């Protein structure tokens, strides 16, 4: 019983630890305070809420000075500098000109911008939202599944595209097994997504499956 109790405690810590959850499911599952904790390099869980509360969220942090950040308990020079660097990266990304955004011209480009998915141990379904010139506007995980399946509804995928003013999109999901062979469910889902895109005026350019160093384009395979 003692061993089982210790095992349950480790499982609970793993499922509540922000770093573990980010690795397993992606950053989108974390709250703003949890993201701030990771940004400043602490796992205590108290600095992020304090930062968010004192400055009213990330919007307030963007205008905070170095000295103001250090007034928060647990934030010294190193953490304040780390946080300012992270915020500055976000600010620069937000003002990138369209020409600086990667262009998705084929599955090789998809592989390049979604290479992190190759190492995930659960199936993730991701939307690459593109503008009229097929440059990347947003990369958003819309579903996290099990070891062998990811479940996504067309409305979830296209809601993401509409929210970010997308003109087209590419669907991407990974196969943790490394085998990129599409299942019948993959093919049927892709055809449903393509039909939904036609109705909404947002073209599904491709659905790419990623494995370990490999990819398969359902468009190139003429499966939709």
Question: Can you give a write-up of this model?
Answer:
It is built from ten helices and five strands, in the order ααααααααββαβαββ. With 224 residues, it is an alpha+beta fold. It folds into two domains: 93 residues, DNA polymerase, domain 1 (Orthogonal Bundle), CATH 1.10.150; 119 residues, Cytidine Deaminase, domain 2 (3-Layer(aba) Sandwich). Strands 2-1-3-4-5 form a five-stranded mixed beta sheet, sandwiched between helices. Helix 10 links the parallel strand 3 and strand 4. Helix 3 crosses helix 4. The longest helix has 18 residues. The termini are far apart.
Summarize the structure.
The protein has 224 residues and is an alpha+beta fold. The chain is built from 10 helices and 5 strands, in the order ααααααααββαβαββ. A 5-stranded mixed β-sheet has the order 2-1-3-4-5, sandwiched between helices.
Q: At the fourth CATH level, what is the homologous superfamily of the largest domain?
A: Cytidine Deaminase, domain 2
Structural class: alpha+beta
CATH class of the largest domain: Alpha Beta
What characterizes the major β-sheet?
A: 5 strands, mixed
CATH fold label of the largest domain: Cytidine Deaminase, domain 2
Give the N-to-C terminal Cα separation. 53 Å
Rg over CA atoms: 20 Å
What's the total count of β strands? 5
Proportion of helical residues: 40-55%
Determine the mean pLDDT.
87
CATH architecture of the largest domain: 3-Layer(aba) Sandwich
| Integer tally of domains | 2
In terms of DSSP E residues, the strand content is: 15-25%
Strand order of the largest sheet: 2-1-3-4-5
Low-confidence stretches: none
| Anisotropy-based shape | elongated
């Amino acid at each position: 019983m003692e061993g089982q109790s210790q095992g349950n405690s480790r499982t609970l810590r793993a499922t509540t630890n922000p770093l573990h959850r980010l690795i397993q499911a992606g950053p989108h599952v974390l709250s703003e305070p949890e993201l701030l904790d990771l940004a400043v390099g602490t796992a205590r869980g108290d600095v992020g809420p304090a930062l968010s509360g004192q400055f009213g969220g990330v919007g307030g942090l963007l205008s905070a000075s170095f000295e103001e950040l250090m007034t928060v308990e647990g934030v010294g020079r190193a953490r304040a500098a780390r946080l300012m660097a992270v915020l500055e990266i976000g600010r620069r990304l937000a003002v990138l000109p369209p020409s600086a955004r990667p262009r998705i011209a084929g599955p090789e480009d998809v592989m390049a911008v979604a290479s992190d998915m190759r190492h995930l141990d659960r199936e993730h379904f991701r939307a690459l939202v593109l503008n009229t010139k097929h440059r990347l506007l947003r990369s958003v995980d819309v579903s996290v599944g099990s070891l062998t399946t990811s479940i996504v509804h067309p409305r979830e995928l296209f809601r993401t595209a509409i929210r970010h003013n997308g003109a087209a999109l590419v669907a991407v999901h990974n196969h943790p097994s490394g085998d990129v062979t599409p299942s019948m469910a993959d093919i049927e889902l892709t055809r449903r997504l393509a039909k939904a895109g036609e109705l909404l005026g947002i073209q599904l350019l491709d659905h790419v499956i990623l494995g370990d160093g490999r990819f398969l384009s359902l468009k190139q395979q003429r499966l939709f």
